[in-house]
Specification:
Layout: E1 12-18, H1 22-36, E2 43-49, H2 53-65, E3 69-72, H3 77-87, E4 92-96, E5 100-102, H4 106-116, E6 122-130, H5 135-140, E7 157-158, E8 165-169, H6 170-175, H7 190-200, E9 205-216, H8 223-243, E10 248-250, H9 255-273, H10 281-300, H11 308-332, E11 340-342, H12 346-380
Parallel strand pairs: 1-2, 1-4, 2-3, 6-9
Antiparallel strand pairs: 4-8, 5-9, 6-8, 7-9, 10-11
Helix pairs in contact: 1-2, 8-11, 9-10, 9-11, 10-11, 10-12
Length: 381
């Protein structure tokens, strides 16, 4: 890799990691050309790619056409961002994903915040989704998985935010070590890890709702796309927790974590009592857990009674994420994420505490119902 490039006093380097996505890259580069016109200081676009030869050639042609610097690097997404930050010429770094488009004032809004407020070290812009919205997308809207993309909607500070619209002073980026270049390519979560790298140095992200980026829904419209993404995000959570264990606190165990523990308990109890009924315990608990989640969803969102099928799919998607967490924990033999959570900002802590307190009692009730069901089955046989 190249040595770090000396930074100029003023300017912004736009770093775009990509893989294939030729048409989406074109849309992004076109939008960046418009947005750059609103910026009074020097700019550059660094596109870091590892596409197969045919797509790579097309993306390079796009870079030549739109005056972007093309770099082929067969490395992970996290490493691509760090590579871009390392070779950037200017003192501000803006990270935008290739499945996004910048609004006309997006880049200028990022720059303005740094120039007007010298204490600002990193900025999280606003993200709006754009494109077709099918049944699957409507189900996703009923999950917490799109919430992070709205962390930049209001002015304030955040520990972390999605890296599809995130900027940082290069000096600070270098100080915290950038994105973790060793972060696995498939699991997501490198943006969470980067936020906690900043937090470890007493830095926070400043939100800027005026810095708007449009995120296409095109990469979210099939079960395969969403299922892989959520599974990998679940796996990535374990990596993030491992790298930031000093920021963990005890939390109510996740549903699928209890199921995996129940499998072990069920096997042990079946052997001790020579009774196969206890092998049903994990399946019964999973069923009770799933039904109760759907019921709670309907209780707290009574206006969604006509969306029962979307709610069912939303809860299935939640289980996919949790399965990713559990699978990675078992693979590593490290189970701390089963019952821990990363700390939040003080203004978010009370809301999280209230939600988790309710979830704890609900989980306790689920366990009692599951045990009662097993005992009823045993009496009936």
């Amino acid at each position: 890799m190249s040595n770090p490039t000396p930074t100029s006093a003023n300017g912004i380097s736009i770093v775009v990691p990509t893989f294939k996505r030729v048409d989406l890259c074109q849309n992004l580069l076109e939008s960046l050309q418009v947005s750059i016109r609103e910026v009074a200081e020097p700019t550059e676009i660094l596109l870091i790619d590892n596409s197969p030869p045919e797509e790579a050639a097309k993306i390079k042609q796009l870079c030549d056409r739109f005056c972007a610097c093309y770099h082929y690097q067969p490395i992970s997404v996290s490493a691509k961002r760090s590579f871009g930050g390392k070779i950037a010429r200017y003192d501000l770094l803006l990270f935008i994903d290739s499945d996004c488009e910048a609004a006309p004032n997006a880049i200028a809004s990022h720059c303005r915040l740094y120039r007007e407020y010298p204490e600002v070290v990193a900025v999280l812009g606003k993200t709006e989704f754009k494109g077709a919205k099918n049944f699957l997308w409507r189900s996703l809207e009923l999950t917490p998985f799109l919430v992070p993309f709205h962390l930049g909607d209001r002015e304030g500070t955040r520990i972390w935010g999605p890296s599809n619209n995130l900027s940082c002073r290069k000096t600070v980026f270098q100080k915290v070590g950038g994105f973790d270049s060793n972060f696995p390519n498939q699991p997501g979560g490198e943006d969470v890890d980067f936020g906690y790298r900043l937090y470890r140095k007493k830095y926070l992200l400043t939100t800027c709702p005026d810095a708007l980026v449009y995120h296409t829904t095109e990469t979210w419209l099939t079960l395969g796309q969403v299922g892989r993404r959520l599974w990998n995000w679940g796996r990535g959570e374990v990596y993030v927790y491992d790298r930031n264990d000093e920021f963990l606190y005890y939390d109510c165990p996740k549903g699928m974590a209890i199921v995996s523990i129940a499998i072990v308990i069920g096997i042990v109890l079946s052997l001790l009592h020579a009774s196969g009924e206890w092998l049903l315990f994990p399946a019964i608990f999973l069923g009770v857990n799933f039904v109760s989640r759907v019921v709670l969803h309907l209780v707290y969102n009574r206006d969604r009674g006509g969306q029962i099928l979307q709610i069912l799919l939303a809860e299935v998607l939640g289980l996919v994420y949790e399965c990713g967490v559990v699978a990675e924990c078992w693979r590593r033999g490290w189970f701390v994420p089963f019952s821990h959570r990363l700390i939040a900002l003080p203004e978010e802590a009370l809301w999280l505490w209230n939600g988790q307190l309710l979830y704890t009692w609900v989980t306790f009730a689920q366990l009692l119902v599951s045990v009662a069901a097993i005992q009823a089955i045993m009496r009936s046989t």
